[in-house]
Amino acid sequence: MKGQVVWLTGFLFLHLMAAMAEETQNLKTKTYPFGPFDSSYYDSFAVIKPATISNDALQITPDSVGNFSLNDRSGRIFFNQTFKLWDGDSKTKTVRKVASFNTSFLINVFRVNNSVPGEGVTFLVASNAAIPPGSFGQYLGLTNSSTDGLSSNNLVAVELDTFKQDFDPDDNHIGLNINSVRSKKTVSLSDFGIEIAPNGTKFHVVWVEYNGLNKSIQVYIAEQDQVSSPTPPKPSKPVLSADLDLSSVVEQYSYFGFSGSTGSHVQLNCVLRWNLTVEILPGGNKGSNSFKIGIAVGVPVVVLVLLGALIYYRYKKRKTRSDPNILGALKSLPGTPREFKFRDLKKATNNFDDKHKLGQGGFGVVYKGSLPKENLEIAVKKFSGDIKGKDDFLAELTIINRLRHKHLVPLLGWCHKNGMLLLVYDYMPNGSLDAHIFCGPEKTTLDWSLRYKIVSGVASALHYLHNEYDQKVVHRDLKASNIMLDSNFNARLGDFGLARAIENEKTSYAELEGVPGTMGYIAPECFHTAKATRESDVYGFGAVLLEVVCGKRPWTKIGEFLLLVDWVWCLHREGKIFEAVDERLGGNYVVEEAERLLLLGLACSHPIASERPKTQAILQILSVSMAVPHVPPFKPAFVWTSMPGPDSFSITSSFTNTADITPVSSGWTPHYFSRDAQGELSDGSALI
Ligand SMILES: *[C@@H]1O[C@H](CO)[C@@H](O)[C@H](O)[C@H]1NC(C)=O
Ligand SMILES: *[C@@H]1O[C@H](CO)[C@@H](O)[C@H](O)[C@H]1NC(C)=O
Ligand SMILES: *[C@@H]1O[C@H](CO)[C@@H](O)[C@H](O)[C@H]1NC(C)=O
Ligand SMILES: *[C@@H]1O[C@H](CO)[C@@H](O)[C@H](O)[C@H]1NC(C)=O
Ligand SMILES: *[C@@H]1O[C@H](CO)[C@@H](O)[C@H](O)[C@H]1NC(C)=O
Ligand SMILES: *[C@@H]1O[C@H](CO)[C@@H](O)[C@H](O)[C@H]1NC(C)=O
Ligand SMILES: *[C@@H]1O[C@H](CO)[C@@H](O)[C@H](O)[C@H]1NC(C)=O
Ligand SMILES: *[C@@H]1O[C@H](CO)[C@@H](O)[C@H](O)[C@H]1NC(C)=O
Q1: pTM of this prediction?
Q2: Taking the domains of the chain in order of start, what are their residue ranges?
Q3: Residue 438 to residues 229, 441, 480, 538: CA-CA distances in angstroms?
Q4: Contacts of 364 (CB under 8 A, 6+ apart)
Q5: Quick one: which of 600, 593, 521 has its CA closest to 553?
Q6: Which helix or strand (DSSP H or E) is residue 489 part of?
Q7: Tens digits of per-residue pLDDT, 657-671?
Q8: Are 105 and 123 spatial neighbours (Cβ–Cβ below 8 Å)?
Q9: What gap in Å lies between CA 517 and CA 681, rounded to an integer?
Q10: What is the reported pLDDT for 395?
Q11: Ligand 4 centre and the CA of 231: distance in Å?
C-alpha cells in the first residue's frame, strides 16, 4: 500500500514538474521602459511630496533647484499601478505561486558642494504608496521611529545607503530591507570599488532580479560614464544575494518604485532611467496549470496524493526529531540568518574531517568547509550536544544574529539536526590574530601598520558592543585567539559563546562551567566578583594591546615578572618603554604609535576597574584625537573595597603577580585552573 502511494506520488510529481517546466518556458511578462523623465510622467507615476520630477529625473528627495530645504526630507515615487505579486488565497495566505520580476535603473546620488552625503535611496516594493510621517534621516522614506520593523509595513526595499547608522556596516553599502531600515543583509560596496556618492558626478546602474520560483533576490551594480552612454553589461556576480519570500512580506497587489531621505546631511537622489519587467500571474478565477491537472487525473488520485504527502511528512518529521523548543526559538528570531541543510554542511566539511579542523574550545569544534555551488568558504562551529550546549548555542545565536559590525565575524546561518547544533560563519582566510603574533621567530610576522589597524578594528568592535548596539553586550572572552583576520587583515571579533547582554544579569563568569575567559586577559576584580563588565572587557583589550605590540603572551614570565603587563610597567617607569616593542619588527615601527599603544595598554590594565578608559576614549586615543592618559610610574595597588567580609582583601604590594590574584574563589572551577596551568585555552586555536 505504502509503496503504491509513493509510486503514485512520484508519478504525479513528474507530471507536475513537467507542467511547471512548461509554465517557466511560457513565463508571461510585461516590460516597461521608463525615462527620460519629463513632466508627462506625473500622469502615470505617484509622486509623493516633496519628491518631484524635474531635471529629466525622478528626484526622490528635493533637488537643489527647487524651493525646498534639502535637510530632513523623505519622498517616494511609484509607478502608479499595482502588480499581482503572488497567486493564492489572501485570506488564508495559501500561496500557489510568487511572481518573478527584473528591474534595472540608472541613478545619480549627488553630494551637494562635495559635503558628506546622507542618507540613502531605495528601490521599493510596497503595498501602500503613502509615506509615513517622520521617515526622514535614517528611515529612508520607508518607516519611522514608531513603525520600523512592523510587519504591517508590507515592504521590501534594496537600499543604497550613504550614511552610517549604529546598525550599518559603513556609509557606502547596499542592503536588503524587510519592513525595517535595519537591513536583513548588508554588503559594503567599498569592497567592490564602488562609491555610491563620490565627490563629483557618477552614475550607477543597479539591477535587481527576483526569482519567485526559488524565492531569491540578486542585486548587481556597475558604473556608467554618462547618462547618454550605453548601459554597461550586467556584472557576472551579484553584490548582494539573499533568500526572500515576497508573499510573506507584501500584500498580493503591490507597487514598484523608489524612496529616499536626507537628514542633517543631504544628497540628491536622482533616478534617470528605469526598466521594469514583471511576470504576469494568471487571474485568480482562470485556474492555474496545477488546478487543470487535478481535474484531469481525478479526485481519487488527489486523495491518494494527500495521503502520500501526509505519510511522507510524518516520516520526515520523525526522522528529523528536532527539539521543537529550539526550533521555535530559532524561527522566532528577528532576521534569522538562513538555515543550512545538515547534509550540505556534512559534505562541505568532508564529514567533519579532522583535517578540516580549525580549532577547538569550550563549546565545540570549528571546521573549515566549502560550498562549491555558492562559491563560498565557511567556518562551521559544531557544538557539543549537551543541554548546556543548547543554551549556549541559543545565547550565541541570539546575540550574534542581531549584531552587525564590520569588525565582527558575520554569522551566515545555522543548522539543528538530531540534537546536533551548528553555526555557520564567514570563513576568515587569515585565521586568528594569535597565530600571526606568536608564530615563532622564524616566520615573518605582522608589520606595524597592520598591527595598528587590527587593534583599532578591535576597539571599534568593542565600542559597538558596549555602546552602540541597542542592547549593551559584554564580550567576556576578549583574547588574541578570538580575534579573526579577514582577507585584508581587518580584525573581526569572534566567539560570542561567552557574550551576554548586560541587561539580563547573566554576566557571571561562573555560570558556564569550564569556559571562562583566559588567564592574563581577566581583570583582577573578576576573581572576586566572578562577574564580567564592560570594564573587564577593557582589561582584556589592554592585554591584547600589549601582546600585539610586544609579541608576547600576557602570562609571559620575563625576569622577575610573571606577567607581561608588570614588565611593561617597569620599563615605563624606567623611561625605556620602547624596549617592550616586539624585536621581530626589527625597529620598523612608528615610535609615537608604539608609545601610544603601550601606554593605552597599561591604562586599560589598571587594577581598579573604574580607572580604565571607556571604549569611546580608547577610539579617540587610537585616532589621535585625544591624548594618552597619564600612566603612573608604579602600577596602582588593587584594592577591593565594595564587599566587606571574608572575601574582601587588598593587595598592597606594588606589583600584583599570579599568586596575588588567584585566591581560590567560589566562581572558578578546577577545570579552569587546570587549563590555565598549561598557559592557554583551546591551544590558542582559531575559535570563532
Ligand atoms: C494613480 O492613478 C489613479 C487612477 O489610475 C488616480 O486616481 C490616482 O490619483 C493616481 N495617484 C497619483 C498619486 O497620481
Ligand atoms: C518658495 O518659498 C517662498 C517662501 O517660503 C514662497 O513664498 C513661494 O511661494 C515658494 N515658491 C514656490 C514655487 O513654491
Ligand atoms: C530575469 O533575468 C534573468 C536573467 O538574468 C532571466 O533568467 C529571468 O527569466 C528574468 N525574469 C523575468 C521576470 O524577466
Ligand atoms: C532599458 O532597456 C533598454 C531596452 O532593452 C536598454 O536599451 C537600456 O539599456 C535599459 N536601461 C537600463 C538602465 O537598464
Ligand atoms: C553650496 O555652496 C553654495 C556656494 O558656496 C551655496 O550658495 C549653497 O547654499 C551651498 N548649498 C548647500 C546645500 O549647502
Ligand atoms: C570631497 O571634496 C571635499 C572638498 O572639496 C574634500 O574635503 C573631501 O575630502 C572630498 N571627499 C572625498 C571622499 O574625496
Ligand atoms: C509613523 O507613521 C505612522 C503612520 O504611518 C503615524 O501614525 C505615526 O504617527 C508616525 N510616527 C512618528 C513618530 O512620526
Ligand atoms: C535562484 O535562481 C537565480 C536565477 O534566477 C539564481 O541566480 C540563484 O542563484 C538561485 N538561488 C538559489 C538559492 O538557488
Answers
A1: 0.50
A2: 26-279, 322-426, 433-672
A3: 53, 8, 10, 22
A4: 381, 382, 383, 384, 389
A5: 521
A6: none
A7: 222 222 222 222 222
A8: yes
A9: 9
A10: 64
A11: 7
Question: Atom 7 in ligand 3: which residue has the minimum CA distance?
Answer: 211
How far apart (Å, rounded) are the C-alpha atoms in residues 555 and 539? 14
Question: So what's the pLDDT on residue 471?
Answer: 63
Of all protein residues, the one whose alpha carbon is nearest to atom 5 of ligand 3 is: 209
Give the three cell numbers for residue 543. 592585554
On whether the CB atoms of residues 537 and 474 are closer than 8 A, the answer is: yes
Residue 71: DSSP 8-state = S
> What gap in Å lies between CA 643 and CA 650, rounded to an integer?
11
Are 26-279 and 322-426 equal in CATH topology?
no
List, for residues 36-79, the tens digit of each pLDDT value: 998 889 989 999 989 999 888 999 998 865 556 889 999 999 99
In angstroms, the Cα distances linking 522 to 457, 532, 541, 676 are: 21, 9, 10, 12
- Looking at the domain that runs over 26-279, which CATH code has it been given? 2.60.120.200
Mutate to test the pocket of ligand 5, among 69, 73, 113 (most ligand atoms within 8 A of CB): 113
Most confident of 124-133, 338-347, 636-645: 124-133
Rounded CA-CA distance 656/653 in Å is 7
Which of 162, 163, 199 for a ligand 6 pocket mutation test, highest count of atoms within 8 Å of Cβ? 199
Classify 614 as helix, strand or coil: coil
* DSSP annotation of 460: H
- Position 288 pLDDT exceeds 90: no
Tell me which H or E stretch contains 60. none
Residue 234 marked in a binding site: no
According to DSSP, the β-strands at 411-417 and 420-426 are: antiparallel
Ligand 5 centre distance from Cα of residue 174 (Å): 28
Nearest ligand to the CA of 244 is 8
- The dotted CATH code for 433-672 is 1.10.510.10
C-alpha cell at 505: 544579569
Note the pLDDT tens digit of each residue in 236-253: 999 999 999 999 999 999
Q: Which fold has domain 322-426?
A: Phosphorylase Kinase; domain 1 (3.30.200)
Rounded distance between C-alpha atoms, residue 174 and residue 160, angstroms: 5
Query: Does the beta carbon of 41 sit less than 6 angstroms from any atom of ligand 1?
Result: no
What residue's CA is closest to ligand 7, atom 2?
132
Q: Which helix (H) or strand (E) holds 18?
A: helix 2-25
Looking at the predicted structure, is the pLDDT value of residue 273 above 90?
yes
Tell me the CA distances in angstroms from 105 to 253, 273, 673, one per residue in order: 22, 5, 61
- Residue type (1 letter), 559: G
What is the grid cell recorded at 665? 574563589
Give the pairing type, strands 483-485 and 491-493: antiparallel
Please count the other Cβ atoms lying within 10 Å of the Cβ belonging to residue 587: 9
Distance from C-alpha of 463 to C-alpha of 623, rounded to nearest angstrom: 14
